[in-house]
Design a protein that fits this description.
Number of domains of chain B: 1
Structural class of chain A: mainly alpha
CATH class of chain A: Mainly Alpha
Number of helices of chain A: 15
Order of helices and strands of chain A: HHHHHEHHHHHEHHHHH
CATH architecture of chain A: Orthogonal Bundle
Distance between the termini of chain B: 39 Å
Strand order of the largest sheet of chain A: 1-2
CATH topology of chain A: ABC transporter involved in vitamin B12 uptake, BtuC
Number of helices of chain B: 9
Low-confidence stretches of chain A: none
Largest sheet of chain A: 2 strands, antiparallel
Number of strands of chain A: 2
Strand content of chain A: under 5%
CATH superfamily of chain B: P-loop containing nucleotide triphosphate hydrolases
Mean pLDDT of chain B: 91
Strand order of the largest sheet of chain B: 6-7-8-3-9-10
Radius of gyration of chain B: 17 Å
Mean pLDDT of chain A: 91
Largest sheet of chain B: 6 strands, mixed
CATH architecture of chain B: 3-Layer(aba) Sandwich
CATH class of chain B: Alpha Beta
Distance between the termini of chain A: 28 Å
Shape of chain B: globular
Oligomer: heterodimer
Chain lengths: 309, 237
């Protein structure tokens, strides 16, 4: 109950800020941070709970963007429909990738996900309808009342997706599914011999994770008024989506949220004050520091401190 | 009808024959010992029974039903549970939580019932005071007991104990042996794979000896010890 009240409060706060006179830049940056909350939370369902490291977040994210663009160009579909479709496509890709690669363990699975990313990018580069390698300019439709600007509306939409992702991740974590995924992460053989249908659970995690990543990518073309393959399918999405839960902590749903808010905000600040290129360096340095010094992330550190008192 | 019937089961790894037409029948409630030198196919055989490996030919029937094609988790749900030779605890979970995995996925118990049953099992195993401890903090003998406890939480009819006593001290062997006798007294059929001869011979009603993927001898513990083939397989004489 407390959790749901918190969710409602946060959503109303996001909505209230969007309708207030706050600086437009806040929403421009906040949208990206919220996108990372969705991606990190989605990544953690498979990578954190089940221990299957996915480097291909960009494949799901980019495919979500392109699904939205196709729907927009062909049918002028509304944003809500674009997001639902992108989630469906992301889920389908998750299922396909899962069926093909979930028999691979550890590093081999991780490598396969990188391959998927390159395949997706190559496909879009060679598809003329969506602009090929040069991409496509998009004309935003009219903003829907009561939002004063399109960016503010997208901010609220992404806040909704972030809260939805968090609610799903939390449910997975505390339900019997979460216990099974943890068992898989600790020992797949022992999980199977304890009655856990390992392949089915891993597929489930892959599908849910893929759907959320796809949904997160859908509003991006409208946010940029532009879409192109190189940035949509950038490996950086995958690196950030992995680094954020690692830094925040992978065992609890709050971990990726903390990591994404922290790292995402730092990235936005660094982009403005120093340069865009330093971003990747910041992610890398923080990731190394945490892996070495605090493998259980911020949540783990916090628990240790509280436990000691 | 026997509880488990293994008929002419074979398994190869590349050019290596791990099992060459092994047949075994085990009755409900039996205490069955499986022995043989290293590499004789004992673990391969129980991997084929538990579903970690698929047998290439032959049949495996559990309670009259062919299970050779089922994934491992389905076999666990039918009533075949095993412990692992090298303990594979869910190391990020507490001892109690380790048992809740099979409780949720096999017995489909609600959380409160599952915890009560898990505590009963841990009490039998002598692990009750460790219920809240992280599995990664356990000692070797405690890990072996956890393996058995987790297998028990799946409410098996057939429990396969894969070298649950290897590397344990004399008193600890007696402890584990006592637990296995107690479980058998509850009506659970037990296959014991063991190198510690004294333990297998004390425990088993019937023993089969494997060598190079074949059964070389079957009989009561007393007969097995006297068998010249068994002596040759073990001592290389």
């Amino acid at each position: 109950m407390k959790f749901w009240i918190g969710i409602a409060v946060v959503f109303l706060a996001a909505l209230g800020t969007a309708l207030s006179g706050a600086n437009e830049y806040f929403f421009y940056a906040g949208y990206v941070v919220l996108t990372f909350v969705v991606l990190a939370t989605a990544w953690n369902i498979l990578g954190g709970y089940a221990g299957y490291v996915n480097f291909g977040t960009g494949a799901f994210f980019g495919l979500g963007s392109y699904s939205a663009v196709v729907l927009f160009k062909a049918l002028s579909a509304p944003l809500a429909l674009q997001i639902v479709a992108a989630a469906a496509v992301g889920a389908a890709l998750g299922f396909g990738v899962g069926i093909m690669t979930l028999r691979l363990r550890g590093i081999f699975f991780a490598i396969a996900t990188v391959a998927i990313l390159f395949i997706m990018e190559t496909l879009m580069v060679n598809w003329r309808y969506v602009g090929g390698a040069t991409g496509l300019q998009l004309l935003r439709p009219e903003v829907i009342a009561p939002f004063p600007s399109y960016t503010r509306m997208l901010f609220v939409v992404m806040a909704f997706l972030a809260l939805l992702a968090i609610a799903i991740a939390r449910y997975v974590q505390i339900s019997w599914i979460g216990r099974g995924l943890r068992a898989i992460r600790d020992s797949e053989e022992a999980a199977e011999c304890s009655g856990v249908p390992t392949l089915r659970l891993k597929l489930f995690a892959c599908v849910v994770s893929g759907a959320l990543m796809g949904a997160a990518g859908a509003p991006m073309p409208m946010y940029l008024s532009f879409v192109e393959p190189a940035s949509s399918f950038s490996l950086n999405w995958g690196v950030s989506a992995l680094a954020m839960p690692m830094i925040g902590g992978t065992a609890h749903w709050i971990g990726p949220v903390v990591g994404a808010l922290l790292l995402g905000s730092i990235q936005q600040i660094v982009t403005v004050t120093i340069s865009n290129e330093i971003n990747v360096l910041v992610v890398g340095v923080l990731l190394v520091l945490f892996v070495v010094l605090a493998p259980d992330g911020i949540v783990g550190l916090f628990r240790k401190l509280v436990g000691r008192k | 009808m026997s509880l488990l019937a293994v008929r002419e089961v074979s398994k190869h790894f590349g050019g290596f024959t791990a099992l060459a037409g092994v047949s075994i029948e085990i009755a409900e409630g039996e205490r069955f010992g499986l022995i043989g030198p290293n590499g004789s196919g004992k673990t391969t055989l129980i991997n084929c029974i538990s579903g970690a490996l698929r047998n290439e030919s032959g049949q495996i029937l559990f309670r009259g039903r062919e299970i050779g094609g089922l994934p491992a988790y389905r076999r666990t749900r039918l009533g075949i549970a095993r412990s692992f030779q090298i303990p594979r605890p869910f190391h990020t979970m507490s001892v109690l939580e380790n048992l809740l995995v099979p409780s949720a996925y096999v017995a489909h118990l609600k959380e409160a019932e599952a915890e009560a049953e898990a505590m009963r099992i841990l009490a039998v195993m002598g692990l009750a005071d460790k219920a809240g401890a992280l599995a990664s903090r356990l000692s070797q003998v405690e890990l072996r007991k956890l393996e058995l406890a987790r297998a028990m939480a799946a409410r098996p009819r057939l429990l396969i104990s894969d070298e649950a006593m290897a590397g344990l001290a004399g008193a600890e062997v007696d402890e584990v042996l006592k637990i296995l006798f107690a479980l058998n007294a509850q009506g659970i059929t037990i296959i014991m794979i063991e190198h510690i001869m004294q333990a297998v011979m004390r425990f088993s009603q019937r023993v089969v000896c494997l060598d190079a993927g074949r059964i070389i001898c079957e009989g009561t513990p007393a007969a097995i010890v006297q068998n010249p083939d068994v002596q040759r397989a073990y001592l290389g004489a």
